[in-house]
UniProtKB/TrEMBL annotation:
<keyword id="KW-0813">Transport</keyword>
<dbReference type="GO" id="GO:0005524">
    <property type="term" value="F:ATP binding"/>
</dbReference>
<dbReference type="GO" id="GO:0016887">
    <property type="term" value="F:ATP hydrolysis activity"/>
</dbReference>
<dbReference type="InterPro" id="IPR027417">
    <property type="entry name" value="P-loop_NTPase"/>
</dbReference>
<keyword id="KW-0067">ATP-binding</keyword>
<dbReference type="Pfam" id="PF00005">
    <property type="entry name" value="ABC_tran"/>
</dbReference>
<dbReference type="InterPro" id="IPR017871">
    <property type="entry name" value="ABC_transporter-like_CS"/>
</dbReference>
<protein>
    <submittedName>
        <fullName>Nitrate/sulfonate/bicarbonate ABC transporter ATPase</fullName>
    </submittedName>
</protein>
<feature type="domain" description="ABC transporter">
    <location>
        <begin position="5"/>
        <end position="237"/>
    </location>
</feature>
<dbReference type="InterPro" id="IPR003593">
    <property type="entry name" value="AAA+_ATPase"/>
</dbReference>
<keyword id="KW-0472">Membrane</keyword>
<comment type="similarity">
    <text>Belongs to the ABC transporter superfamily.</text>
</comment>
<keyword id="KW-1003">Cell membrane</keyword>
<keyword id="KW-0547">Nucleotide-binding</keyword>
<dbReference type="InterPro" id="IPR003439">
    <property type="entry name" value="ABC_transporter-like_ATP-bd"/>
</dbReference>
<dbReference type="InterPro" id="IPR050166">
    <property type="entry name" value="ABC_transporter_ATP-bind"/>
</dbReference>
Length: 262
């Protein structure tokens, strides 16, 4: 698999502050689902914003299919924790407008039809004409996922998209995302930031762990569990527990290192 995303010696700091990220080298093949874990403040969101082209590195470079990332683009969809729907537009219009921008020249009626189709995929057919404020947090996040999928970008960057949800909705949206991803003819490359080791192991093909101060890669592990995964049997398996434990130890050692250094 060719690398869809490459980070080469990436370093970043905010203005004159200490470096947030240092010497990050990472190759992400097309179609891989990568989960990014790390302590709070280790720079996960910063790394995602660099990939999104919303910020730029001080050192090194980020590439998509060999070309430098120079700004945001429809070849990289983003889903953040705060839903980010336009409050003055209905749910369907939020998605149809995005499709229209991503596929210039598409007739309005076609954009709308595609939007309705994607809302159906996330179980929101009944909310098509509603405004974001009329929806629950889980429904808004589903709409944001529908919009990200509808853009048909080869890359999806997700920053704790389920972090604000209750456990039931969180599990539901994890399943919805994996089902949508697994059934795509050409799988998207996903970079998914989370604090939750279980979530990372349930969703990911690979788990990358960012250490703190400055953020460096401290672990890069393949997730060996076959798909389609069954939540209950996976969470009960000894392989899952062993990998979970090993990642938890890596994170704990990083926290300890930070405390000693402080
Ligand atoms: N706009 C900003 N200006 C200055 N410093 C920032 C800015 N955004 C983030 N930081 C700092 O950069 C560091 C990394 O932040 P970032 O949000 O990338 O970490 P994170 O790993 O995503 O954290 P969390 O898991 O808590 O969301 C933190 O110390 C944070 O305070």
């Amino acid at each position: 698999m060719a690398a869809e995303l490459s980070l080469e010696g990436v370093g970043f700091s905010y203005e004159d502050a200490a470096p947030i990220l240092e010497k990050i080298d990472l190759e992400i093949p097309a179609g891989q689902f990568v989960c990014l874990l790390g302590a709070s403040g280790s720079g996960k969101s910063t790394l995602l914003r660099l990939l999104a082209g919303l910020q730029f590195p001080d050192q090194g470079r980020l590439l998509q299919n060999g070309k430098p990332i120079t700004g945001p683009g429809f070849d990289r969809g983003v889903v953040f924790q705060d839903y980010a729907l336009f409050p003055w537009m209905t749910v369907v219009d939020n998605i149809a407008i995005a499709i229209g921008k991503a596929q210039p020249g598409t007739r309005k009626a076609d954009c709308r039809a595609q939007a309705v189709d994607y809302l159906g995929k996330v179980g929101l057919e009944s909310a098509v004409g509603q405004y974001p404020f009329e929806l629950s947090g889980g429904m808004r996040q589903r709409a944001a996922i529908a919009r990200a999928l509808a853009l048909r970008s080869p890359v999806l960057l997700m920053d704790e998209p389920f972090g604000a949800l209750d456990p039931t909705n969180r599990a539901r949206l994890q399943d919805l995302l994996t089902e949508a991803w697994e059934t795509e003819a050409t799988k998207k490359t996903i970079v998914f930031v989370t604090h939750d080791i279980d979530e990372a192991l349930y969703l990911g093909d690979r788990v990358v762990v960012l250490g703190s101060t400055p953020g460096r890669l401290i672990a890069d592990l393949p997730v060996p569990f076959a798909r389609h995964r069954d939540r209950r049997s996976l969470f009960d398996s000894s392989g899952f527990h062993a990998l979970r434990e090993s990642i938890a130890e890596t994170l704990a050692a990083d926290t300890l290192r930070q405390l000693v250094a402080a």
